[in-house]
């Protein structure tokens, strides 16, 4: 099954910890200060903590894949083609 979206949601809880490289030990951590709250609110990143080694840092809740980048490129090419056609039609009739 393929999804044609550009960004895909993922759950970082099931990823490996960047410090101890163990899978399934990350959990969400509370924001400690205003900076962390702003990052959590306005970006696709949240604060996570490792249950095993205590690592604490940001992980993204969204991911770009090769397939999604290909889809984005197709959209950009289509927009350029449509803009060119519209420009040619406007030049002809105006």
Architecture overview:
With 94 residues, the chain is of the alpha+beta class. It folds into 2 domains: 7-63, Single Sheet (N-terminal domain of TfIIb); 65-94. 39% of the residues lie in helices and 19% in strands. The chain has 2 helices and 5 strands. The protein has helices at residues 34-42, 66-93, and strands at 8-9, 26-28, 45-50, 56-60, 62-63. A 3-stranded antiparallel β-sheet has the order 2-3-4, covered by helices on one side.
Q: What is the gyration radius calculated from CA atoms?
A: 21 Å
- Going by CATH, the architecture of the largest domain would be Single Sheet
Shape: elongated
Mean pLDDT metric: 87
* CATH fold-type name of the largest domain: N-terminal domain of TfIIb
Order of helices and strands: EEHEEEH
How many domain modules?
A: 2
Number of helices: 2
Residue runs with pLDDT of under 50 for 5 or more positions:
none
- Percent in strands: 15-25%
Name of the level-1 CATH class of the largest domain: Mainly Beta
Helix % is 25-40%
Q: How far do the termini sit from each other?
A: 47 Å
Main beta sheet: 3 strands, antiparallel
Number of strand segments = 5
Q: What labels would you give this structure?
A:
alpha+beta, single chain, three-stranded antiparallel β-sheet, N-terminal domain of TfIIb, two-stranded antiparallel sheet, 2 helices, 5 strands, about 90 residues, 2 domains
């Amino acid at each position: 099954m393929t999804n044609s979206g550009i960004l895909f949601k993922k759950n970082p809880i099931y990823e490996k910890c960047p410090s101890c490289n163990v899978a399934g030990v990350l959990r969400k951590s509370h924001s400690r200060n205003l900076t962390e709250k702003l990052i959590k609110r306005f970006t696709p990143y949240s604060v996570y903590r490792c249950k095993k080694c205590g690592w604490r840092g940001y992980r993204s809740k969204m991911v770009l894949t090769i397939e999604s980048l290909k889809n984005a490129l197709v959209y950009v090419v289509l927009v350029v083609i449509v803009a060119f056609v519209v420009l040619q039609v406007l030049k002809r009739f105006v």
